[in-house]
Each structure stands twice: as structure tokens, then as C-alpha cells.
Write the C-alpha cells for this entry.
Amino acid sequence: MIIDWFRTLLFTTLIFMAGVAAAATGPDQGAHMTDKGKKQMVATFAGGCFWCVESDFAKEPGVIKVISGFTGGNVANPTYKQVSAGGTGHVEAVQVTYDPARISYEQLLDVLWRHIDPTDSGGQFVDRGSQYRSAIFYHDQEQHDLAEKSKQALQQSGRFDKPIVTQILPFKTFYVAEDYHQDYYKENPLRYKCYRRNSGRDEFLEKIWSKEIKKAAPMTGNTRYHKPDDATLRKTLTPLQYKVTQKEGTEPPFKNAYWDNKQAGIYVDIVSGEPLFSSLDKYTSGTGWPSFVRPLVKENIVEREDHKLFSVRTEIRSRHGDSHLGHVFSDGPPPTGLRYCMNSAALRFIPVDQLEKEGYGEFLASFK
């Protein structure tokens, strides 16, 4: 296989250095408790190269840990070399430990669908062979039922022209891959980016899921949420609004429009007008910026890794306006445990009594 040759060429040194035997986990891995008594859950997915699948799941808020490994085969303690040869029956897979209070199993399924080609039974993208096929390995009946429901919904959505062939199988045993495969996207960022860029994965996903933006529901009449050209933005935005939304700037804490706003209403993107947050989800975080426990319309929120300030944070942007809004942190209050810390300069507030007039009447019911 081309990709196996490519991997071998890039990582021969690492393979020789990896001498740790793979560990196995059994079917009793479903829910477990942390030392503090907080419930965690486990999910197992296959979607081609586990470097990419691990990276995609690890970025999701509420995901605690992602491990790359092998499952679904008939050979105990397989090595990567054995699995990649295609003779063990295993697939490359990831085991996801997550906090169900912050991210649901249904949401994890959605993450999987958005990062694979569920119509390909012969592998995934440049990786060919049954060892790279997509699959959902359910740990209990609830996961099975949710997976079947989600698969059916995707099939009926019309997103794909071909049948959805991703398998839904009972989880049995998971074997942890060699150490050099774990956190590969972080430990070897240049090689990982080179592989991913040439794998065809992102090109395919952009083609399929960009339709979501093009088919976005209109705000009123035939007007869609969109980003004006730069010349228009410079005329309509204040210098601070432009700096924050277009240059990823940050406004001063406690000296901005909405940090202490207690009026009822919604917050929309200052650039595109797409609805983002509700006052019903706003709380006083003490940070000096408007903070929310969840988005009003999740589909309008895009998360990206931010490596500025010598740390890795999760940046929040608007989907249609592509505006920098702020960041999300995991130190928020119940029920989500999240803090969407936003810049007032990226938002426009619409009071409840103006929602109908401004074209956001669909959100009135939540305030009654």
C-alpha cells in the first residue's frame, strides 16, 4: 500500500525505538468513576488512520482522553505491523474517554460522521484495506441504539449520494497501539500535517460539509448570513471591532459593552448577524468579559486550536462571518462546565422586545 510505504519511510526510526507491548482493554470498559467520583464514559470508533481520528476527537470540549489502538480482530496483542498488513481482522481505532455532562454520545457520533467518509467500505481516503474501514463499536445497548439512530438520520439527510456503510459492532477488546502512535499529531506536528495534507481527508470533508454553509437558513427573506468584503467591514466596524473580529484581538476586561449586561435577549455576530448566544445562558464569570455556558445555535460556532501565548487554547469563531469571538474554557458552571468567554466588540445585543422586528422571532419562545 502506498500509505504504508509512506508511513514506514517517515517513521522507521520511531518504530525501532518503540518497544513497549500493546495493552488490552476488555468489554467491561463502559462507564467508570474518577478518583473524585465523577462519572466518565468510554466510546470506541474507527475512521481510518488513527492519528487523524485521535486528533479530531481530542479537540472536542468534554473529551478527556483519546487513545489510538486496534479492535475488532482475532489476534491477541497485535502489533501495528501486523494490523497494517491486513491479516488480523483488526481496524485502526480510537478509544475516547469523555465527560457525559459536557459532551454526549450523540455529539461524539456527530464528530465521527463529520471526519470520515461513511460511504467507503474499502478503507478511508488514501488508506486502503479493511484495517482502515470505518466502524462504531458500542459498549452497551444505549450506545447501540443511539448509533443506529444516528446512522439512519445521516442516511436520510441526503448529505451523501451513496449508502452509509459504516459498521455498528459490539465492542470486545481494545489493544493500545505502540507508544509512538499516541498523540502523534502533537509529538510530530510537521510529519502529521504532511501526512494529513496528502491523505485527501480534509479535501473530502471540505467538499462535503461546506454544503452546510452554502445551504444555511436565511435570517429574513432571501438574506443569508455572510461576511461583507474587507472594504465594507472597515467602513461599518469601529477600529476595535475590526481588530477583534478580523485580527483576533482582545478588548480590555470590564471596559466593554456587555460584560455586565443583564438585559434579556440574544447576542449575534457583529459581522454577519448570525445568532450566537442567549442571555439565558449568560453568567457572571468575574473575568470582565461576557461569558456563556453554551451557544444559542451550536451550528454557528466553530472551534479551532489556538497556539498563541505559549499555550494551547480553543478559539471560538462564527461559522458564516468567520469572526474571531473569543475562547472556550472548561472552568464554567453547571450544567455544561464550559465558559464561552467572548469579546463584546464581536457581538451585537438584541433585546427581547426587538427580536421579532430584527428577524429573530424564532427565539422569542425561549423567553416566555
Remarks:
- The CA atoms of residues 57 and 108 lie 8 Å apart.
